Amino acid sequence: MRLEAAELVRVTIPLVGAFTAAFGTLAARDVLLVRLVTDVGEGWGECTTLAEPFYNEEFFDASAIVLRRWLLPPLFQRSELRADEVRSVASRVKGFAAAKAAVEMALLDAELRHEGRSLSSYLGGTRSRVDVGVVVGILGSVHELCETVARFVAEGYARVKLKIEPGWDHQPASAVREAFDTLPLQVDANAAYDPSSADRLLALDGLNLLMIEQPFAADDIDAHRRLATRMATPICLDESIPSLNAAVTALDTGACSIVNLKVGRVGGVIEARRIHDLCRARGVPVWCGGMAETGVGRAANVALASLPGFTLPGDISASSRYFARDVTAPFELVGSSLAVPGGAGLGVSVDDDFLTELGATREVVRGAR
Ligand code: NPG
């Protein structure tokens, strides 16, 4: 296929409720979508980065610059382009995994739509529905937390993840455990702990958690390894795993026994599948992380989570968890699962009129820089 036109679409979508984690509070989601027009049709991708570099190094404005100046222009030069070549063409650009993932996603969408094949089938998915969980942010009180968890459990979510940070960890988690004694429950620290305060995490061992996710800094693999030798609760890594190589190191050193896979963090669904394959070969469970994406990014997440190694529910809650109205048809919870789109490509259509209604800005990116 040949790339003929590219557009960066930016829009801010209000969230149904503010979401707080160690990286800050989101009251609205700044969304960056990439629309690519090729000679075989168009495709959409989502750059899942946040407005500020508080989750990882990448952030919204920087991703847009990198897309405009360095990621998209070389793709216009190629007379024959396949989506699975994006990673190597983009390898001159260091980092910016979410921007790269968005380009790969849009080209895959175009390519697979043309072939009449779904992303799930392309990746080797084996399920038509995927079990999902929900994430509850840091709230004002334990009472509010327990009420929020109760509401999500009533909606059907069969696994709950609590955001924790120093000062909001054992007490809220044990209150939820007490109120929901058999609920599959896990916690996520987004790197908020200093290894010198590892002792306070040991208390979480009594709460029968599925896992504790990313307690320490992304580059501190050894602190995670040390904690894993002291805790019975499995350690899961998210921010520490930006690539297949990083996954190999984390598993070889015993820094984690579960891996969170996020499309935007690892640079695309194809790299995510390679990490999935590695983990599956080693018997390490993986699950699909989320970044409060619109239906575009969610479609990619759900397709990825349909692979056989995704044996734990993902952070891919229904669209209504974050948005009163999404830019695609909503992903809806039935029981505790979402349907994997069976349509060609991502299997979702973007509601352009709604984007306009929301005040989206559109920037045409050209081949020459
Ligand atoms: O359901 O999409 C979702 C959100 C899951 O809380 C979630 N993700 O740290 O994993 C995370 C967190 C996140 C949200 C990270 C937004 C970055 C942005």
Structure description:
By secondary structure, the chain is an alpha/beta fold. It folds into two domains: 3-116 and 349-365, Enolase-like, N-terminal domain (Enolase-like, domain 1), CATH 3.30.390.10; 120-339, TIM Barrel. The protein is 34% helix and 20% strand. It is built from 14 helices and 13 strands. It has a seven-stranded parallel beta sheet with strand order 5-6-7-8-9-10-11. A four-stranded antiparallel beta sheet has the order 3-2-1-13. Strands 4-12 form a two-stranded antiparallel ribbon. Helix 6 (142-155) packs across helix 7 (170-179). The protein starts with a strand and ends with a strand. The model has no long low-confidence stretch (mean pLDDT 97). Bound molecules: N-succinyl phenylglycine. N-succinyl phenylglycine is lined by residues 21, 50, 55, 135, 188, 190, 238, 289-292, 315, 317.
Compute the number of strand runs. Answer: 13
User: Number of helical segments?
Assistant: 14
Overall helicity: 25-40%
- Beta-strand portion reads 15-25%
Secondary-structure element series: EEEHHHHHEEHEHEHEHEHEHHEHEHE
Cross-sheet strand order for the largest sheet: 5-6-7-8-9-10-11
- Rg over CA atoms: 20 Å
Broad structural category: alpha/beta
The CATH homologous superfamily of the largest domain: Enolase-like C-terminal domain
Instruction: Please state the average pLDDT score.
Output: 97
- Any idea of the CATH topology of the largest domain? TIM Barrel
Low-confidence segments? none
CATH class type of the largest domain: Alpha Beta
Give the oligomer, counting copies of the same chain as homo and different chains as hetero.
Answer: single chain
For the termini, the CA-CA separation is 21 Å
Ligand inventory? N-succinyl phenylglycine
Envelope shape: globular
